[in-house]
Design a protein that fits this description.
This protein is of the alpha/beta class. It is about 50% helix and about 10% strand. The chain has 17 helices and 6 strands. It has a 6-stranded mixed β-sheet. Helix 11 crosses helix 12.
Length: about 350
């Protein structure tokens, strides 16, 4: 699929496309996505930003586009941040988008009725829902749940933030934090010519980059830097080095693709840099989810004293479901002797989990 060939991250690190991803069902059992799709037509895939949800969909799309055994499904990668216009019905937007993608094979009403020409049904791989405005998230959620209730000749996988409650009619899956063994496999695959022992030690539970070993984006960023002979010493150092090294690579890929590039996580780091330089963090509460928690996590690593960042998150804890888990993650970043009360955070996390059932 041309969309995968033009994916910026895959142009910079093509090895990503072949990485095994840790995907689990609601009971915590590891579940291959293809098997889950063969069992259930409508799935959600939860995870934090940078966990690999988009990559999982790109891997699926490539499989269904190339496999003769899967020729009855037409994969369609859909980014709601570019598809949604803020006013039109989701069904109309999907119909028009799918018709434009596969014009020779796809009649109108494809998304609504499940038709897709001579190849069978659609496989909708939907990203970007969490980045829509609250009212548009509501509209899209209702439309996709209605589609699941109709059980048309359509299958769908929707990426969700991990704080989003389960959707009726959808089987919930989640990308989990990788094991140390899986991190080692990823490093061997992404930077095969580099020494892995030191890199793996940095990402170990007692290593300086232990927090970065929880999701794919930061591990991939680390592997890319290691392959270039760079050795980040912390999460803040990881992003700072990436911001120094990436512009030339981004310029090269932009010249090839003629499209603007940029991962939201890099923008969040730039925002965290500004907050740390100013030394005030009250504006954290004004950021939308998931920017709020992700920016705070990065700001903790940049701040001379982490307490003001943690205190700002604490004050914002009633403003969104993302805040309390983000506070718990951020608390792991500062030195162990931080005077900020971890017991308060643990109590808030327990209350948050109990209220969500």
């Amino acid at each position: 699929m041309s969309a995968i060939g033009r994916a910026p991250a895959l142009r910079i690190l093509p090895g990503l496309l072949h990485l095994p991803l840790p995907i689990a069902d609601a009971a915590g059992a590891l579940t291959p996505l293809r098997r889950a799709l063969s069992e259930t037509a409508f799935l959600t895939l939860a995870g934090p930003p940078g966990s690999g949800r988009r990559l999982a969909m790109q891997q699926l799309a490539l499989y269904y586009a190339r496999s003769k055994a899967a020729a009855d499904m037409v994969p369609a990668l859909i980014d709601l941040t570019t598809l949604d216009d803020g006013r039109s019905l989701p069904e109309l937007l999907l119909d028009n988008h799918l018709h434009a993608l596969y014009r020779p094979a796809a009649p109108r009403q494809a998304a609504r009725n499940g038709a897709s020409g001579h190849r069978g049904g659609w496989l909708l791989l939907i990203n970007g829902w969490e980045l829509l405005t609250p009212d548009r998230r509501y509209v899209w959620r209702a439309a996709l749940q209605a589609m699941a209730a109709r059980q048309a000749n359509v299958r769908a996988l929707v990426a969700l933030p991990r704080e989003e409650p389960a959707w009726p009619g959808f089987r919930p899956l989640a990308i989990t934090a990788p094991s140390q063994a899986l991190v080692a496999r990823w490093l061997q695959h992404l930077c095969p010519a580099s020494p892995h022992a030191a890199a793996l030690a940095a990402l170990a539970p007692d290593g300086p980059l232990a927090g970065c070993a929880e999701r794919l984006f930061e591990i991939a960023l680390f592997a890319w830097l290691v392959a270039r002979g760079s050795a980040p010493a912390s999460r803040a150092d990881l992003y700072a080095r990436a911001l120094e090294a990436l512009p030339a690579e981004i310029e090269r890929v932009q010249a090839e693709l003629h499209i603007p590039l940029g991962h939201p996580q890099m923008g969040r780091f730039a925002q965290a840099q500004r907050l740390a330089a100013e030394g005030t963090y009250a504006s954290l509460a004004e950021l939308p989810a998931p920017d709020r928690g992700e920016t705070a996590l990065l700001a903790v690593g940049l701040a001379q004293q982490p307490e003001p960042v943690l205190a700002a998150l604490w004050r914002a804890r009633l403003q969104g479901d993302d805040v309390v888990p983000a506070l718990g993650r951020s608390l792991k970043e500062p030195p162990p002797n931080t005077p900020f009360g971890p017991l308060r955070v643990a109590t808030a996390l327990a209350t948050w989990a109990r209220e969500r059932g």
